[in-house]
């Protein structure tokens, strides 16, 4: 039986540190800086690449967090679009015209042009599957001098926000010549990706031809460490300078000045399979919803370092709570009557197996028979998307791609959504999602998003349990590491080790 992480002995933590010993030692091809004597930044990342670091997958967010691949647009702290590889844009009906920044070169020395932008965007729109930021979006791009015209099938008020998604990074031509898209030596950021060793490590060097401010660090050495205890141990032992996503159970073992805690637009949710099995019944889904005690999860598993969820959207979007209606009209719970269910989750986030064990007890108390299936995420995602489980526990970012939750809601709960683990196919939900997607930015869109959230919650296809706070570990020698709620930035041009 798997013990909760907080019960691991000191010897287990020590063993994790031993396993990491030497893992950040630079190789011949990646150890060089720029001859300035600066220190390379050693980063322990949580999840290994799932798709060979293809920017058309979730691996794009690793490229963004390493400041190696960039997009036309970036988002500010409020989620508003700001210039990046594009210096400005304007809308005319279905078409948005973006001016491409002059003086930018890719890491292979070739020049950023409008044609290069069109090539990258076209590769994304024709990919199978498409990046989820393009779910439900028909988008074409054409070059006109130093400008790129991006046209959608219908007027889309969020085209600039969509183009800020790391999955729409702009890469050099040679990135697209193989069977997969390769970001090695093809980005535009302050750091050049120089080597990748499968799912174990990656290395980046400072790119001195960067169009913006020169990186202060000569490079980054990345180790993929799925085990949260090992990531925390690497920071404690001095093997890592930055540890991504420190488990709650390990936070107390670090010095307070090594921890930064930020409310995240990330919700720990129980997705219920509406397509088959016991949860095809709305009454049985309602029974599961009523059986869950989220407060005990926050207190017991997360040690108070999380917020109880009232909806899918949490405190990282403060307007959501003010606009959200009551739960009046929810389906009445039925009797589980010993229904057997299998709940899946993954080990990459250390708290989730413990969440699963706690839910197992709560649901069994309510009359369910519960089996658990726990694997690494890479080994379980395809089964979850195929509807192989009755329920699935997922830690899900709600504004990861565009800074707007409508894209997440469509992806996870639209009948055509690419991440519809609940297998939800509900006409009222689809209608509400379409309204939210079409609404103009601002108050009208926020209200439409909450209406869509309410429609989803009304089906009990998903039971939001808690909103997470990210715990990032930084050695005291690290200066200006990013602490980004959207998980887009980690090491920036301004980050360095003293």
Automatic annotation (TrEMBL):
Annotated protein name in UniProt? ABC transporter substrate-binding protein
Renumbered to this chain, the signal peptide range is 1-25
UniProt source species: Streptomyces rectiviolaceus
Task: Please tell me whether the keyword ATP-binding is annotated for this protein.
Answer: no
Q: Which domain of life is it from?
A: Bacteria
- Does the keyword section mention Signal? yes
Pfam families registered for this protein in UniProt: SBP_bac_5
Q: Which segments constitute the Solute-binding protein family domain?
A: 82-418
Database matches in CDD domains: PBP2_NikA_DppA_OppA_like_3
- Tell me which UniProt keywords the record has, alphabetically: Signal
């Amino acid at each position: 039986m798997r013990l909760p992480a907080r019960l691991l002995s000191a010897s287990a933590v020590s063993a994790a540190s031993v396993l990491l010993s030497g893992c950040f030692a630079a190789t011949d091809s990646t150890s060089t800086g720029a001859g300035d004597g600066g220190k390379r930044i050693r980063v322990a990342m949580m999840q290994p690449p799932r798709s060979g670091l293809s920017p058309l997958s979730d691996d794009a967010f690793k490229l963004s967090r390493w400041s190696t691949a960039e997009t036309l647009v970036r988002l500010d702290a409020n989620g508003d679009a700001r210039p990046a590889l594009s210096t400005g844009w304007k809308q005319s009906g279905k078409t948005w015209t973006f001016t491409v920044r002059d003086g930018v070169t890719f890491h292979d020395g070739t020049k950023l042009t409008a044609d290069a932008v069109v090539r990258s965007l076209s590769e994304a729109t024709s990919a199978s599957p498409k990046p989820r930021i393009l779910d439900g979006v028909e988008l074409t791009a054409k070059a006109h001098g130093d400008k790129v015209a991006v046209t959608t099938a219908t007027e889309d008020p969020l085209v600039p926000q969509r183009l800020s998604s790391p999955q729409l990074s702009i890469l050099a031509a040679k990135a697209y010549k193989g069977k997969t898209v390769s970001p090695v030596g093809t980005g535009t950021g302050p750091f050049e990706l120089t080597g990748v060793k499968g799912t174990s490590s990656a290395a980046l060097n400072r790119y001195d031809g960067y169009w913006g401010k020169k990186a202060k660090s000569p490079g980054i050495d990345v180790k993929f460490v799925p085990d949260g205890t090992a990531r925390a141990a690497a920071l404690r032992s001095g093997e890592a300078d930055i540890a991504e996503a420190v488990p709650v159970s390990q936070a107390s073992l670090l010095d307070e000045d090594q921890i930064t805690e930020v409310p995240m637009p990330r919700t720990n949710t129980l997705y219920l399979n509406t397509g088959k099995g016991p949860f095809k019944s709305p009454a049985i889904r309602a029974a599961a919803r009523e059986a869950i005690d989220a407060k005990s999860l926050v207190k017991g598993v997360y040690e108070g370092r999380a917020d109880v969820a009232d909806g899918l959207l949490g405190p990282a979007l403060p307007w959501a709570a003010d606009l959200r209606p009551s739960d009046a009209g929810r389906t009445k719970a039925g009797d589980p009557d010993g229904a057997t269910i299998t709940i899946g989750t993954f080990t990459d986030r250390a708290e989730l197996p413990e969440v699963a064990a706690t839910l197992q007890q709560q649901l069994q108390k309510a009359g369910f028979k519960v089996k658990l299936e726990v694997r690494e995420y890479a080994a379980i995602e395809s089964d979850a998307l195929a509807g192989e489980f009755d329920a699935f526990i997922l830690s899900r970012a709600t504004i990861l791609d565009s800074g707007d939750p409508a894209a997440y809601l469509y992806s996870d709960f639209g009948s055509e959504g690419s991440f519809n683990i609940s297998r939800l196919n509900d006409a009222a939900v689809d209608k509400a999602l379409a309204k939210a997607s079409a609404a103009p930015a601002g108050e009208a869109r926020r209200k439409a998003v909450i209406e869509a959230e309410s429609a989803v919650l009304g089906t009990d296809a998903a039971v939001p349990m808690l909103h997470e706070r990210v715990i990032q570990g930084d050695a005291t020698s690290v200066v200006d590491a990013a602490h980004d709620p959207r998980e887009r930035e980690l090491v920036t041009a301004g980050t360095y080790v003293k």
